[in-house]
Design brief:
about 500 residues, alpha+beta, Phosphorylase Kinase, domain 1, five-stranded antiparallel sheet, 12 strands, about 35% helix, Ser/Thr_kinase_AS, ATP-binding
Length: about 500
């Protein structure tokens, strides 16, 4: 605390008090929340729900920002340093003689529901929504006081007497702790009504009076809803006389019909039918604010520079894939010709049609695991060497014609595709060698099968003559015969080198 100079006391709660302080170093004002209880260790401080929740939810424009945690281990005192806000919602409406402008109310409530949506998406619900815990500065609203928060997916039942009574949902009042994150939305509806009307909606003196006030305004719920609550309650009396309820519209006649409809849907008795935060943001009451956000996003988007990859307009259009049933007769003829050429290649395992969409042998698939094909297993059993005669070449592959065809079905198979060390020939039985996957993605294929094959040849073997690896170890080590290269392939290779 020696870094701050205490200025005044802002407020006090059950478990803490809030002080206004000034940083000695930079002169900025902060809000310091001093905990009344002591903590024995630093681990106990880190396990505090409020600290964990703020770390998970920050940064967000409508969540209070935690700046620093001050812990004095000898005394066990703990203080949390927050950004300083002007006031809370209760201070905004306290002693007020004129209604808050509806446009200002709409902006505040939109920001509050955005904070609730962010919390619920991150698996946390607040459990203590009330005007005192909603802070504002100018037109910015931020949610604070996460000391009572809980995980959405934690095991029920929860603590029964958790939130302030006036803003407590019916499922919290009538069940033995069986409530969900929808209780926060009930509190949002109560806060919205209070900001509009300048008085609380259900100021009950105890739990029974609280339920009576809810029924007097909203009406008695259907017996099916009460039966569901009764299954999870051992203390409450469910013999409620039927009532119609006075309704919300009579209490706030100056409020817009869309705003009244939003309050009614936030205060639905059955939590399963109550609006969620995501649904509330899409309510017609906030239509203008949503359109304003879209306009602002559209105005900012032209000035943004994409950090990764080209812009969508600069990217080529996606290639439409056609099913085999829609192929033309010419396409089917070309495909059949390619298959016949592939069958004529000596000692090459013919690739099946389904392998065109499967990961290549020896290359990591989508799962990141090394996948080995049946052809590789047969090659390894026959004693085929998996090393190239040209030595270790980083960031390159020895791609065989079958793999080239699998990557580019349009490329003609077996034409000018000379792959050094990619195959081992020994009579009728031979299989493709295992290719070695190295760092990155060195393959950069284009639409020309001949060019991509010659690129691999030029990188792996500058000379036109290509050694052939045989099954026998003594031939694989060296001394293999030279493979014949046609003049056409030599000319194509030479033009590729010169180009």
């Amino acid at each position: 605390m020696h870094k701050y100079r205490l200025v005044a006391k802002k407020g006090e709660g059950t478990f803490s008090e809030v002080l206004k302080a000034q940083c000695i170093k930079n002169g900025k004002y902060m809000a310091i929340k001093c905990m009344k209880s002591s903590f024995d260790s630093l681990d106990q401080v880190n396990n505090l729900r409020e600290i964990q929740a703020l770390r998970r939810l920050s940064p967000h424009p409508n969540i209070i920002k935690l700046l620093e945690v001050l812990y004095d281990q000898p005394t066990g005192r703990l203080a949390l340093v927050f950004e300083l806000m002007d006031m809370n919602i209760y201070e905004l409406i306290r002693g007020r003689t004129h209604y808050v402008p509806e446009e200002r109310v709409k902006r505040y409530m939109y920001q509050l529901i955005r904070a609730m949506d962010h919390m619920h998406k991150n698996g946390i619900f607040h459990r203590d929504i009330k005007p005192e815990n909603i802070l504002i500065i100018d037109d910015v609203l931020k949610l604070a006081d996460f000391g009572s928060c809980r995980g959405i997916y934690s095991k029920q039942p929860y603590t029964e007497y958790i939130s302030t009574r006036w803003y407590r949902a019916p499922e919290c009042l009538l069940t033995d702790g069986y409530y969900t994150h929808k209780m926060d939305m009930w509190g949002v509806g109560c806060v919205l009504f209070e900001v509009v009307s300048l008085f609380p909606l259900f100021p009950g003196t105890n739990e029974v009076d609280q339920i009576e006030r809810i029924h007097a305004t909203m009406g008695t719920p259907p017996q099916e809803v009460l039966a569901q609550f009764k299954k999870r309650s051992a203390h409450a009396n469910f013999d409620f006389p039927p009532r119609e309820g006075t309704g919300i519209a009579k209490l706030i006649p100056h409020f817009s019909p869309e705003g009244i409809d939003l309050i009614m849907k936030l205060l639905i008795y059955n939590p399963e039918e109550r609006l969620s935060a995501k649904q509330a943001l899409r309510h017609p009451y906030f239509r203008e604010l949503r359109e304003e956000e879209k306009r602002q996003a559209a105005a900012l988007s032209p000035g943004l520079t994409p950090s990764l990859g080209p812009s969508p307009s600069a990217m080529p259009p996606p290639v439409k894939q056609r099913s085999s049933g829609n192929l033309s007769a010419r396409r089917r003829s070309h495909r059949e010709t390619d298959r016949q050429r592939q069958d004529k290649l000596p000692g090459i395992h013919r690739a099946r049609d389904e392998e065109h969409t499967s990961p290549l042998p020896g290359l990591p698939g989508a799962s990141g695991k090394h996948q080995v094909s049946d052809a590789e297993n047969r090659g390894s059993q026959a004693g085929v060497s998996s090393s190239n005669s040209t030595g270790s070449l980083p960031q390159l592959f020895a791609v065989n014609p079958v793999s080239s065809k699998a990557l580019n079905p349009r490329a003609p198979l077996g034409v000018g595709m000379i792959q050094p060390g990619a195959y081992g020939f020994s009579g009728k039985q031979a299989g493709p060698l295992s290719t070695t996957s190295l760092k990155g993605n060195p393959l950069a294929f284009n639409a020309r099968g001949l060019k991509q094959s010659l690129a691999s040849v030029a990188a792996l073997q500058p000379q036109a003559s290509v050694p052939v690896i045989r099954h026998k170890p003594e031939l694989a080590a060296g001394g293999g015969r030279k493979k014949y290269v046609s003049p056409y392939s030599q000319r194509a290779l030479q033009s590729f080198k010169e180009g």
